[in-house]
Write a structure and sequence with these properties.
Radius of gyration of chain B: 19 Å
Chains: A mainly alpha (about 325), B mainly alpha (about 290), C alpha/beta (about 400)
Order of helices and strands of chain C: HEHEHEHEEHEHEHEHEHEHHHEEEEE
Distance between the termini of chain C: 31 Å
Helix content of chain C: 40-55%
Helix content of chain B: over 70%
Distance between the termini of chain B: 44 Å
Shape of chain B: globular
Radius of gyration of chain C: 21 Å
Oligomer: heterotrimer
Number of helices of chain C: 12
Order of helices and strands of chain B: HHHHEEHHHHHHH
Strand order of the largest sheet of chain C: 7-6-8-9-10-14-15
Number of helices of chain B: 11
Largest sheet of chain B: 2 strands, antiparallel
Strand content of chain C: 15-25%
C-alpha cells in the first residue's frame, strides 16, 4: 500500500491518469465526473498563478469564459464544423486575453493585482452581456452542435456521456503533463523563487516580469481549455461563465483542495462539486451544509484536503504555503 | 441630450450621496478589518444582510424604528465579536486565504440561516412615519428618509473619526492599519484590539444594512453583490485609509448615480472602470500608502 | 374522450385526499418502474418564493394523479432540483436527471436563460420539456424543437395584452423603464407595437441595469416627458424596488404605473401601500375561483395542502404537469413521439378556463388578466382586484411563420 502510494507520489501524472480512468464509475453519473475534470482543470490553471507564482487573481472567469465563448462562437456562429477548430478558437481567445490583461494587471502586486484582474473580468462580462449578436447576451449562447471528433482517418462520436468523459480526460491528462513539464523546468524554479521572494528573484537577475507574464498566459491557457471543454459539454455558454462568482468558485475549489499542491485543485473541484450535487438532492438548505463544511476544513485542515493529506503522509516534501 | 438644469442634476447628486453613504459604512469596516488583520472578510455582505433582518425583527419587537436602528447594529457587532473570537482568531498567522475561505463559508451559512428563519420571500422594512414623505429643499424635492441616511452616515463617521483620533485604542488601531508588523513589534497586546475592530466593522455593516433596508427591501441575498462593490471602494480609496474609504465611497456612489442617469448601459461597469483607471494611475489607491499590503 | 376523462379525473381527484389518508394507495409497481419527471427550479437565490410556488403546484398535480392510481399503472415521481437561477447549473442538473435518474420528462425553469439551457439538453436527449416561465425564444426557431412545449405565456403576449389594455384605458402616452436584458428588451419592443396599434405612443424608454437597487436617477426624465402611463418592464425584486421608489418620488400621483408581469409574491412582499393603484398583468389570480369552476377546484385543493392560495407560477407548474401527464394517459405510452402527438392541438381546462396547444410552436394559449393592487387588502391574500380579462387568442402572439416554423 505504502509502496503504491510512494509510486503515485513519484509519478503524479500517471497516478492522475489511472485514477481518473476509473473515476466515472465511482461517482453517481458520468456528467458529474466530466464536470469535476473540467473544473479541476480550471482550478489547475488558477493554481499555477496563485499556488506556484504567488499571484492571487480574482478574475479567472475571464479566461474560462473566453475559452467557452471562443469555442461556442466558432461552432455556433461561424460554423467552423470541427471540434479541433472550436478548441483552437477558444484557446486562442483565452491566450490573447491572458496576454493583454496580464500585461496591465502585472504592473501591480498583492491585493491591487487581485482587484485589477477582477475589474478586467467584469469588463469582459459586461461586453459579453451586451454583445448579444455574438454571445446571446444574458440568454446565453445556444446552438453549439455536438460534432464527432475527427482523428486521423477516423471520426469518433463523442456525444455519449462516457465518450465525452474520455475525450475530456485525454486533453486534461495532456494539460496535467504539460503543467508538470513547466514546473520541473528551470522556468518552474523561477516561479517558486518569485513566490517566495519576488525582490530577491529580481536581485538574482531573473526576468521576473517576463516570467510572471508567461505564467499568467499559461494559466489563462489551462483555464481557457476548461471553458472550451465546458462549452462542448453543455452545448450552451451561459453569461455567468464570465461573472465574478465563477472566479470566486475557482478560488474556493483551489483553496479547498490545497493551493500550491499539484493535484489539490482536482481534489477541491471534486469535493466541491460532488458535495453540492449530492446535498442539493436531499435538502434545499444545502448551502448551509456546504458552508459549514468549508469552515470546518479551514479550521481543522489548514492546508486544504490534499495539502493536509500530503503533509500527514510522509511521501513527498510538504508543499510550501503560498505567500500572503 | 438630457436636461442638465439644477432641478434635475441635484437629485442625482444626492442619490449618489445616499448610495455612497452605504458604501462608506461597508468599506470602512472592511478596510479596518483588512488593514489591521489582513482578513478579507467575505462575510461582510452577510453581516449587512443580518443588520437589515435584525432591524425588521427589532421593529416588530419594540414597535420603534429608532430602537431598531440603535440596537440592530449592536447585535450585528456581537455576531462579529463571536466570529472573531471563536473562528477568525484561530487563523491569525496563517496565510491570507484561510480567513477568506472561512468567511466565504460563513457567508453561505448566514444567507441560508436567514432564509430558514425569515422565509424565502423578502421582507419590507418601513421607515418611521416621520420620515415617510418627501422634503422640499427649495431647489429640489427629495425623500426625507434618504436625507436622513446621509445625516446618520455623516454622524457615525464623525463619531468613528473622533474615536480613532482622540483615544488610545484609536491610536493603536490607526497604527495597526498602517503597519501591523510594527505594532506587533512594539509589544502591544493586539488581540483585544482585533476583537474590538472586528466588532466595530461588523456593527457598521449592520448599520448599513438596516439603513438600506427601507430603500432596497430586505432579502437573504442582498449582501452578495454589494460585497464586491465595497471591496472596490476600499481599493480605490487605498487599503487601510479611512479618509480614502469615505472619499472613494462617495465617488463610487456618484459615479453609479450619474452613469445610471446619463448612460444607463454603463452603470454596471462604471465602478470597475473607475477602479482600473485609479489603480493604473495611482497604484495604491487615492489615499493609500505606496508599498503597503502589496 | 377528452371531456369524459376530465370529468372522471375531477370526480376522482376530489375524493383523493381521503383515499390517501385511509389506505396506502393503489398498488404500484415497485422501484425503478415509476414515471419520473425532472423538475429544475431556482430553489435558492432571489426567486426562492416563486420556485416554492412552482414546486407546490407541480407536486399537487403529481399527487392527484397518483391518488387515482397513477399513470399506466405506474406511480409518478417528481424529482425537484435546484438550478440556482444559473443556466450552467440548470444544464448540469438536467444532465443529472436524464443520465442518472433516467427521467422520462423534464418540466421547470424560471429564468429564460435557464429554460434555454435546459432545452439544449432535453433537445439532444430527445426528451419532452415543458417550460413553465416566460420566454420569447423558447417557442421560436432555432431554440424550439419538437420536444419543446411552453405552458407559460411570453413577453410578447404579455405586452400585447397589458399594453393594449393600458393604451385603451389608462392613457395614450407611455414611458417604459426596462431592465437591460432580453426580457426587458422584449417587453419594451412589445409595448411599442401595442401602443401604436392602440393609437398611442411610447414617448420614452430607458434601460436600467438588471438587479439595480436605485431607480431614482431615472425618474426626472420620466417626469419631464409627462406620460400618462409608466411601464416598469422588469421582474421580481427590480419591480418591487422600482415601484417603491416611484412611490417615494411622488410619480404615482402624476401617472398610472403598470407592471407587465405583476407577481403576487412581490406584491405581498411590498405591501398594499407601496403598490396602491398599480396595475399589472397576470395569467392567474386565485379569486378567479369565484367565477371559474376549474379555478375553484384548483385553489381549494392547493389551499388545503399548503394553507395558502396559489399564485400564477404555481398555476403554470400545476397545469404544465397535468398537461404532460394527461397526454401520456391519452397516448397510453411514454414514447416521446406519441406523447407529442397527444399534446399537439390539445384543448384543456386545468385551472382557469380553456387553453390549447398550438401545433406549430407548442405554445399554450390562455386567458390573461389585468389586475389592480388592492388597498386595503382583503385578509392576508386578497391582494388584487381583477379589472379585465383578455380572452385567449392566437392573434396576440406572433404567427407560426414569424417564429420560423414553416
Amino acid at each position: 500500500m505504502r509502496r503504491l502510494a510512494a509510486l503515485a507520489a513519484g509519478h503524479p501524472v500517471l497516478a492522475f491518469a489511472a485514477f481518473f480512468a476509473v473515476f466515472p464509475f465511482l461517482v453517481p453519473y458520468k456528467a458529474l465526473a466530466t464536470q469535476v475534470l473540467i473544473y479541476g482543470l480550471f482550478a489547475l490553471g488558477f493554481n499555477l498563478l496563485y499556488g506556484y507564482t504567488g499571484l492571487l487573481s480574482f478574475g479567472h472567469a475571464a479566461y474560462y469564459g473566453l475559452g467557452a465563448y471562443g469555442t461556442g462562437i466558432a461552432l455556433a456562429r461561424l460554423h467552423v464544423g470541427s471540434v479541433w477548430g472550436g478548441l483552437a478558437a477558444g484557446l486562442g481567445l483565452a491566450v490573447l486575453g491572458g496576454a493583454v490583461i496580464g500585461f496591465f494587471c502585472l504592473r501591480r502586486r498583492g491585493i491591487y493585482f487581485a482587484m485589477l484582474t477582477l475589474a478586467f473580468a467584469q469588463l469582459l462580462y459586461f461586453v459579453g452581456f451586451h454583445l448579444t449578436e455574438w454571445t446571446g447576451g444574458d440568454d446565453g449562447l445556444r446552438g453549439i452542435p455536438a460534432l464527432p471528433l475527427a482523428l486521423p482517418g477516423v471520426e469518433v462520436p463523442i456525444d455519449t456521456p462516457l465518450a465525452f468523459y474520455y475525450f475530456t480526460l485525454a486533453l486534461v491528462v495532456l494539460a496535467v503533463a504539460g503543467l508538470r513539464r513547466i514546473l520541473e523546468s528551470p522556468f518552474g524554479t523561477v516561479l517558486g523563487a518569485i513566490r517566495e521572494n519576488t525582490d530577491r528573484a529580481v536581485a538574482c537577475g531573473y526576468h521576473v516580469d517576463r516570467v510572471k507574464h508567461l505564467s499568467f498566459v499559461f494559466s489563462a491557457l489551462f483555464s481557457g481549455l476548461a471553458g472550451s471543454l465546458d462549452a462542448l459539454r453543455l452545448t450552451v455558454v451561459p453569461i455567468d461563465s464570465l461573472h465574478w462568482t465563477t472566479s470566486g468558485q475557482v478560488v474556493i475549489m483551489t483553496l479547498l483542495g490545497g493551493a500550491g499542491t499539484f493535484l489539490g485543485p482536482f481534489v477541491g473541484a471534486a469535493a466541491f462539486l460532488v458535495l453540492e450535487d449530492r446535498l442539493s438532492v436531499f435538502t434545499e438548505s444545502w448551502q448551509l451544509v456546504v458552508g459549514a463544511v468549508f469552515m470546518a476544513f479551514v479550521l481543522f485542515l489548514p492546508r486544504g484536503i490534499w495539502g493536509t493529506l500530503l503533509a500527514r503522509l510522509p511521501l513527498a516534501p510538504a508543499p510550501p504555503r503560498p505567500a500572503a | 441630450m438630457p436636461d442638465l438644469s439644477p432641478a434635475v442634476l441635484a437629485p442625482q447628486l444626492f442619490t449618489g450621496l445616499v448610495l455612497g453613504g452605504i458604501f462608506v459604512l461597508l468599506a470602512t469596516g472592511l478596510s479596518l478589518i483588512f488593514g489591521l488583520m489582513t482578513v478579507v472578510n467575505f462575510a461582510h455582505g452577510s453581516l449587512y444582510m443580518l443588520g437589515a433582518y435584525f432591524g425588521f425583527f427589532l421593529l416588530g419587537l419594540t414597535g420603534s424604528f429608532w430602537a431598531a436602528l440603535a440596537l440592530a447594529p449592536l447585535l450585528v457587532g456581537v455576531v462579529g465579536l463571536v466570529v472573531e473570537r471563536f473562528m477568525v482568531r484561530r487563523l491569525y498567522g496563517r496565510s491570507i486565504d484561510d480567513p477568506l475561505l472561512l468567511t466565504f463559508g460563513l457567508s453561505l451559512v448566514l444567507v441560508e440561516l436567514a432564509r430558514l428563519v425569515w422565509g424565502k420571500m423578502g421582507l419590507t422594512l418601513d421607515p418611521p412615519p416621520a420620515l415617510a414623505g418627501a422634503v422640499d429643499l427649495g431647489f429640489m424635492v427629495f425623500p426625507a428618509y434618504r436625507l436622513f441616511v446621509i445625516g446618520v452616515t455623516a454622524a457615525v463617521l464623525t463619531g468613528l473619526w473622533l474615536f480613532l483620533e482622540r483615544t488610545n485604542v484609536g491610536l493603536v488601531i490607526r497604527a495597526g492599519s498602517r503597519d501591523p508588523l510594527m505594532v506587533r513589534a512594539l509589544g502591544i497586546d493586539v488581540s483585544r484590539v482585533w476583537l474590538l475592530v472586528f466588532g466595530i466593522g461588523s456593527a457598521l455593516a449592520g448599520l448599513a444594512g438596516i439603513l438600506a433596508g427601507p430603500m432596497r427591501g430586505v432579502y437573504a441575498e442582498m449582501g452578495v453583490t454589494i460585497i464586491i462593490e465595497s471591496f472596490v471602494v476600499v481599493v480605490v480609496g487605498g487599503m487601510g485609509s479611512l479618509l480614502g474609504a469615505v472619499v472613494a465611497g462617495v465617488l463610487i456612489g456618484e459615479v453609479v448615480s450619474l452613469t445610471t442617469f446619463f448612460a444607463p448601459k454603463l452603470a454596471e461597469i462604471a465602478v470597475f472602470v473607475v477602479m482600473a483607471l485609479v489603480l493604473l494611475v495611482r497604484p495604491s489607491g487615492l489615499f493609500g500608502e505606496a508599498g503597503l499590503l502589496e | 374522450m377528452t371531456a369524459l376523462s376530465r370529468r372522471e379525473f375531477l370526480r376522482l381527484s376530489g375524493a383523493a385526499p381521503a383515499v390517501v389518508a385511509l389506505r396506502p394507495g393503489p398498488a404500484f409497481a415497485q422501484g425503478g418502474d415509476t414515471i419520473k419527471i425532472g423538475f429544475p427550479i431556482p430553489l435558492t437565490g432571489p426567486y426562492g418564493a416563486e420556485a416554492a410556488d412552482q414546486q407546490a403546484g407541480a407536486t399537487l398535480a403529481v399527487e392527484e394523479v397518483n391518488a387515482r392510481g397513477g399513470l399506466l399503472g405506474r406511480k409518478v415521481e417528481l424529482l425537484v432540483r435546484d438550478d440556482q437561477l444559473k443556466p450552467g447549473v440548470g444544464a448540469q442538473r438536467t444532465k443529472e436527471l436524464i443520465e442518472n435518474e433516467k427521467v422520462h420528462f423534464v418540466i421547470g425553469g424560471l429564468s429564460a436563460a435557464v429554460q434555454m439551457a435546459i432545452n439544449e439538453q432535453t433537445k439532444k436527449a430527445k426528451i419532452i420539456y415543458v417550460s413553465i416561465s416566460q420566454s420569447n425564444e423558447i417557442t421560436a426557431r432555432p431554440d424550439w424543437s419538437p420536444y419543446t412545449f411552453h405552458e407559460a405565456i411570453n413577453p410578447y403576449m404579455t405586452s400585447q395584452v397589458v399594453g393594449g389594455w393600458a393604451v385603451r384605458n389608462l392613457g395614450k402616452k407611455m414611458y417604459v423603464l426596462y431592465a437591460d436584458y432580453a426580457f426587458g428588451h422584449q417587453l419594451r419592443d412589445g409595448f411599442k407595437v401595442a401602443a401604436e396599434k392602440g393609437g398611442g405612443a411610447v414617448v420614452g424608454a430607458d434601460p436600467h441595469p438588471l438587479g439595480a437597487t436605485d431607480y431614482s436617477a431615472l425618474f426626472p426624465r420620466v417626469q419631464a416627458a409627462r406620460p400618462d402611463v409608466l411601464v416598469l418592464a422588469n421582474f421580481g425584486k427590480d419591480q418591487l424596488n422600482s415601484v417603491k421608489q416611484a412611490a417615494n418620488f411622488g410619480l404615482k400621483a402624476q401617472m398610472k404605473v403598470v407592471c407587465p408581469v405583476f407577481l403576487g409574491t412581490i406584491r405581498r412582499e411590498g405591501g398594499p401601500d407601496v403598490f396602491e393603484g398599480v396595475y399589472g398583468g397576470t395569467t392567474f389570480y386565485w379569486e378567479l375561483a369565484s367565477t371559474i369552476p376549474s379555478a375553484k377546484r384548483f385553489v381549494e385543493a392547493f389551499q388545503k395542502k399548503n394553507g395558502r392560495p396559489p399564485f400564477d407560477y404555481a398555476g403554470y407548474a400545476y397545469s404544465g404537469t397535468r398537461l404532460l401527464l394527461e397526454a401520456v394517459e391519452r397516448a397510453k405510452s411514454l414514447e416521446a413521439d406519441k406523447v407529442i402527438r397527444a399534446l399537439e392541438g390539445h384543448t384543456y381546462d386545468h385551472y382557469k378556463g380553456k387553453q390549447w396547444i398550438r401545433k406549430c410552436d407548442h405554445q399554450s394559449f390562455q386567458d390573461v388578466y389585468i389586475v389592480r393592487s388592492r388597498k386595503p387588502q382583503q385578509g392576508e391574500w386578497g391582494l388584487f382586484e381583477i379589472v379585465a380579462r383578455t380572452e385567449a387568442s392566437e392573434s396576440l402572439e406572433r404567427t407560426c411563420k414569424e417564429l420560423g416554423h414553416a
